[in-house]
C-alpha cells in the first residue's frame, strides 16, 4: 500500500477520465481547470487586474429627454423603453408567459 500515485494508478485514472468525458471534452476540461487554478493563485496573492471595460453596445440610445415606447406584436400593449434602443419583434412578458 505504498505510494498512491504510481504510474499504473495514473494510467487507470486517465483511462477512466477518457471513457467518462471523451476525447473532445478533455482539453476543454483541462483548460477550465488551468484557468481556475490561475485565478485562484492570483486571488491568494491579492494581485488581480481591474475588470475589463464592457464593449460598447451596437445600438445607441435615443435622445436623453424623450421617453421611448415599444409595442407588443401580439397584444398591442405599450411598454416603456428607457434606453431607447431599436426593438424588433417585441413580445411583452404577459404574452411570453402565455406562450
Report what the structure shows.
45% of the residues lie in helices and 8% in strands. The chain is mainly alpha-helical and 99 residues long. It has two domains: 1-48, no CATH class; 68-98, no CATH class. A two-stranded antiparallel sheet has the order 1-2. β1 and β2 (78-81) form a beta hairpin. The longest helix has 39 residues, at 7-45. The protein is elongated, with a radius of gyration of 26 Å.
Q: Quaternary state, please?
A: single chain
Beta strands, count: 2
Query: From the alpha-carbon coordinates, what is the Rg to the nearest angstrom?
Result: 26 Å
Number of domains: 2
Strand order of the largest sheet: 1-2
What series of H and E elements makes up the topology?
HEEH
- End-to-end CA span: 61 Å
Characterize the largest beta sheet: strand count, sense, and whether it forms a barrel.
2 strands, antiparallel
Shape: elongated
Structural class: mainly alpha
Number of helices: 2
Helical proportion?
40-55%
Q: Give the DSSP E fraction (strand runs of 2 or more residues).
A: 5-15%
Average pLDDT taken over every residue = 76
In the predicted model, the low-confidence regions spanning at least 5 consecutive residues are none
Amino acid at each position: 500500500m505504498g505510494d498512491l500515485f504510481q504510474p499504473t494508478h495514473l494510467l487507470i485514472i486517465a483511462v477512466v477520465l477518457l471513457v467518462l468525458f471523451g476525447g473532445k471534452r478533455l482539453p476543454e476540461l483541462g483548460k477550465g481547470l488551468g484557468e481556475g487554478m490561475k485565478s485562484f493563485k492570483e486571488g491568494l496573492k491579492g494581485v488581480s487586474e481591474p475588470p475589463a471595460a464592457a464593449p460598447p453596445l451596437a445600438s445607441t440610445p435615443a435622445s436623453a429627454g424623450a421617453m421611448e415606447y415599444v409595442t407588443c406584436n401580439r397584444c398591442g400593449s405599450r411598454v416603456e423603453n428607457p434606453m431607447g434602443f431599436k426593438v424588433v419583434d417585441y413580445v411583452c412578458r404577459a404574452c411570453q408567459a402565455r406562450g
